[in-house]
Amino acid sequence: MRSRYFYGYNIVAAGFATQAVVIGAMFTFGVFFKELEIAFGWSRALLSGASSVAFLIMGIGGVIAGMLNDRIGPRIILSVSGAAMGLGYMLMAQISAPWQLYLFYGLLVGIGFATHDVITLSTVAHWFIRRRGMMTGLVKVGTGGGQLVVPLLAAAMISRIGWRPSYLVIGILSLVMLIAVAQMMRRDPQGLGLQPDGDPPQAPAKGQPLAVPSLTLARAAYTLTFWSLCIAEFMIFGCLLTTIVHIVPHARDLGLQPTTAAAVLSTIGGVSMLGRIVMGTAIDRISGKRALVLSLTLLIISLVWLQVSTGACMLFVFAVLYGFAHGALFTVMSPTVAEYFGTASHGLIFGMVLFSGTLGGSLGPLIAGHIFDLSGDYRMAFITLSGMACIGLILAVLIRPIAPESLNTAN
User: Fold this and answer.
1) Domain segments of the chain as ranges
2) Which of 150, 145, 111, 173 lies closest to 19 in space, CA to CA?
3) Would you say residue 121 has pLDDT above 80?
4) pLDDT above 70 covers what percent of the chain?
5) How do residues 231-270 score in pLDDT, each as one tens digit?
6) Which of 1, 194, 345, 389 is the most buried (most CB within 10 A)?
7) Which residues of 191-227 are buried (b: 16+ CB within 10 A; e: fewer)?
8) Do residues 3 and 195 touch, judged by C-beta distance below 8 A?
9) What integer pLDDT is reported at residue 245 of this predicted model?
């Protein structure tokens, strides 16, 4: 008999909270961006470089964390990364030189960023099969909640107590909350004597899909599908992480007040919750490839609209279009990896795909900041992002199921 309450829902709740705290804090970089520029006179390329280092560390750390999660489970990993992130934000309250920005934010906060996706989503992939997409979407709704609330809170705190105390508050809250929710995590249901989806052990649940052969990273690397997903993720993260870093400075350049510019960012976060739950639910029905294609198509439309947006109303329209695509694209990849490669090495394979993405995410904000420093606006940067999204769409369209001969070659 199915128990009344399935511990997998605790995993989803803990993942939701982790995503809300980490990504909410990540989205404040654009809110603090102008304050740091004014306080120190640093260039936008220099400031963007700190986020690029953080994204690069996030990618490298994600591969390591994914490998460790497959072996030792999520609790210790999330506790360590939560402590690093909280400490990094607390130390940001004391910065006075670029090397401190790169050490405290780029390295320590980057370590904190490294686990939020690969650990939470890989763990969810072990706990759910039939509803994997939906539960992944619910976890990623936490991201949207953080994006909606935390930047507005950060902007309000900065206006009242200044940017240094605001960094300290964010750091303390992040450290306490992340370590606390990490204690709820468990690697897989079998460790608690349970089955995925809360099913009884006697037989597979009615309607459960056939299991996908689980590939190791070495075997997955022999497939075109793996490399297509890696390159597509490079393009996707290049678009998404560049946008979250530069949209607030761009809005303020267009004449928006700081709180209004932060509201554009928060709108992205709010609408992204809809994108996460809608596309997360849809992927259980239409497949990872179709969900990826639909999400990338909407991203392209939003980036084209951004290039002609000149005022607050148009930017909020962009925020709605982009926000849905943003949420969807951060949701569909983990279930897609599980769909094509299984779950035995999901943490490591997903970590490698995310690492490819963070390479794009680390380069994108830096290049966009450099383009702004040279030209005085973001026009060429946004055109470049549109091109990257188109490349990602082409790769998504070309993804095919893994051929049996590829698996034989991998042996």
Assistant:
1) 8-187+214-399
2) 145
3) yes
4) 94
5) 999 999 999 989 988 888 889 888 888 888 888 888 887 8
6) 389
7) eeebbbbbbeeeebeeeeeeebeebebebbebbebbe
8) no
9) 82
Q: In this structure, what DSSP letter does residue 73 have? A: -
- Contact between residue 245 and residue 46 where contact means Cβ atoms under 8 Å apart: no
Q: Is 60 exposed, middle or buried (0-12, 13-18, 19+ CB in 10 A)?
A: middle
Mean predicted confidence (pLDDT) in 203-230: 73
Greater pLDDT, 222 or 296? 296
Given CA atoms 383, 384, 386, 387 in this order, what sign does their dihedral have?
A: positive
CA distance 401 to 329: 20
**275-317, pLDDT tens digit by residue?**
988 998 888 888 888 999 999 999 999 999 999 988 899 999 9
- Compute how many other C-beta atoms are within 10 angstroms of the C-beta atom of residue 5: 9
**Are 214 and 343 spatial neighbours (Cβ–Cβ below 8 Å)?**
yes
- Hey, what are 116's tokens? 């939020």
Angle at 217 between CA 337 and CA 242, to 5 degrees: 55
User: Which candidate, 52, 154, 166, places its Cα nearest to that of 109?
Assistant: 52
As a CATH number, domain 8-187+214-399 is 1.20.1250.20
DSSP characters for 313-364? HHHHHHHHHHHHHHHHHHHHHHHHHHHHH-STTHHHHHHHHHHHHHHHHHHH
CA–CA distance, 298 with 322 (Å, rounded to integer): 7
Q: Which two tokens stand for residue 229?
A: 């997903």
Q: Which residue has the tokens 């619910």?
A: 138
Residue 191 per-residue DSSP state: G
Residue 1: its pLDDT value, please?
43
The answer to whether residues 5 and 130 touch, using CB atoms and an 8 Å cutoff, is: no
Which structure tokens are listed for 184?
A: 């709820």
- Min mean pLDDT across 103-112, 175-184, 273-282 is at 273-282
pLDDT attached to residue 202: 59
